[in-house]
Amino acid sequence: MKVIAIVLMLLTSNLCVADVSWTDNNYKGKGVGVVNVYPQWDKHWITFQGTDGKMYFYYWGNSEEPNERAKMFLSMLLTAFSADYKVSVAAETTSQNGWYAFTFLNLHK
C-alpha cells in the first residue's frame, strides 16, 4: 500500500511540475485520431500527428535503440492508426518548434 501511494505521488507531482495536460482535460475524453506515426531514429523520438493538427513526440533518451516505454507507445499508436482508435494524450501545453512532448497515452475507441 505504501508503494502505491508513493507511485501516485510521483506521477501527480511530475504532471504538475511539467505543465502537462490531457487532451480534452480528461484521460477518458474523446481523444484524437492518429494520422501518421513513425520513429525518428536520428532524434530518438516516437512521433505522431493527431487529428487535432498537433505533432507529438516521445523522446526515449540517448540510447540508439528505443526503450520499453517507447516500444509500448509505438505499439499503441500503430494500433490506433490501423484500427481507427483514438488516443488521449498527456502532453506539454507549450510546443517545441511546433512539436508537443508527451508522457502518457490512453488508447480507446
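^ that was protein a. below is b, sequence first then the C-alpha cells
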Amino acid sequence: MAITIDGIKISSISIQRDENGLPKLTGNYELVSATGVTIAKQSFNGYNDIKLTNSSETQKVLTDFMMAVQTDLNTTLGLN
C-alpha cells in the first residue's frame, strides 16, 4: 500500500540573526499523509537538516517584521 504525502504542517519557526546580522529561519515541519496522519517530522536550517534558502521576498518580509517588532518594543519602553 502506497503512502501519499498530501502536504506539510509547520510546527515551529524560530527567527534569529545570522553572523551577518540578517534574519535566519530555523524550524520544524511534519509531512502529512492524504488521510491527515503525520508521517514524519523534520527540521530545516538547523544542524544536519535540509537547508532552505530564503527568497528575496521572504528575506524582505523577515527584515520588515524584525524592524516592526523593534519599533513596537521601543514604543512600549518609551525609547522613541
